[in-house]
Amino acid sequence: MALAELERDPAGGGRFSSPVPPSCRSRPCVLGVDEAGRGPVLGPMVYAICYCPKEQLQELEAMGVADSKTLSESERERRFGLLEAAGELLGWALQVLPPQHISACMQQRAKYNLNELSHDTATELIQHALDNGVQVAEVFVDTVGPAEKYEAKLRGRFPGLEVTVRPKADALFSIVSAASICAKVARDRAVKCWNFTEDLGDDIDRDYGSGYPNDPKTKEWLRRNLQPVFGFPGLVRFSWGTAQELLRHGGVPVTWYDPSAPTSVLSYFSRSSPRRSPHRFFQERSLKPVAEL
């Protein structure tokens, strides 16, 4: 099973996919894009695509796919099992973005916000399907940011495809619902199987609630697992405001000292030091720099 590799190393992130059904290489297909884990302060964000031949959409709908947020965890798992079992009908692919990667992107010198990261990840997954021979004809995407601008961006990138970007697309289009289930199941498993490399004691504390910043259980977990010097475990998106606020109040202040730095900004504007006299060897021989002749 493709997700077994993710469960072995959730923190590593990367791309995971099912085999491409032969029918998807020979018939026009619809492809849906959705994500899970955009807002939480804990765990990865997972983008997913799901695709199948247009003529077999009714078979997909008969599986009872729906917006993953409306399903219980057990129902999501059951329906993901149905999607996996229908390997001759449809395929899927995931991109798992680890928490530290998300935070590093958002805090780098050249700002790379979450919307841009989301757009680029979705684009890469669509291209992944095309590169693997999927005959994509139509693409349906749950929007990130203004739908019109996102749709124009994707149409510019994929001029040969019919692209539809809509808010709540996971509730409107069954192929996006299928992608939503794939993304949510993968994220839940990644969080549940997270391999902590930090020393959190003999019994690893996994009582972190939903992972969303406004969840009291999540906030309490963050407080319990804040190391004053080294911060949070790798499960935490340290660029999120919730984490930064806890670090400000519970972390040890650090002052970085650069011995080469001037003691004052005004020193940058001070006059240069007096010019030193040349060595006696040059004075005795009346030697001067070429620039002074």
UniProtKB/TrEMBL annotation:
Keywords: Endonuclease, Hydrolase, Metal-binding, Nuclease. A divalent metal cation binds at residues 34-35, 142. Its cofactor is Mn(2+); Mg(2+). GO terms for molecular function: metal ion binding; RNA binding; RNA-DNA hybrid ribonuclease activity. It catalyses: Endonucleolytic cleavage to 5'-phosphomonoester. GO terms for cellular component: cytosol; nucleoplasm; ribonuclease H2 complex. Residues 28-252 form the RNase H type-2 domain. Its EC number is 3.1.26.4. Residues 1-24 are annotated as: Disordered. One of its GO terms (biological process) is DNA replication, removal of RNA primer. Pfam families: RNase_HII. It is an enzyme of class 3 (hydrolase). Residues 1-10 have a biased composition (Basic and acidic residues). The RNase H2 complex is a heterotrimer composed of the catalytic subunit RNASEH2A and the non-catalytic subunits RNASEH2B and RNASEH2C. This is Ribonuclease. It comes from Coturnix japonica.
